[in-house]
Predict the 3D structure of the following.
Amino acid sequence: MKKIFIHGIIAGILAAVASLIYCNLYQSTLGVSFDKIINIGSVFGSSIFGCVLISAAYSILFKFKKANLQGILNVIIVVLSFASIIGPFSMSLPLDIEFPEMFPGLVVPMHFFPALAFFTLSPFFKQSSFKS
């Protein structure tokens, strides 16, 4: 089980780094700044939290020897990632922010980075006893 949570933490760090790189590229390329809304701590925290939450779900599958439900869990993770993008579209930004319509283009892709990082690193953290 320890291996699953290490997987989640490393995936969270990878997702956070990818998010920060994307954030810097997006803002510098398009000449916008959302620094008043997004900060490094929130990006790291949400990425690591998301991946550790995925790890917790996987550890439950591992504990109950339900490897055959792994595909269903992956679908649930993707559906929840899609559902999480409702927030950026419904968020009202401060009035002094320039180009508020560009904010969803910045944060929506970052909502998928934790799942993408977790799934990408999965082959490196295979559980040998994760068979039902």
The two ends are 16 Å apart (CA to CA). The chain has one domain: 2-125. The first helix runs from residue 2 to 30.
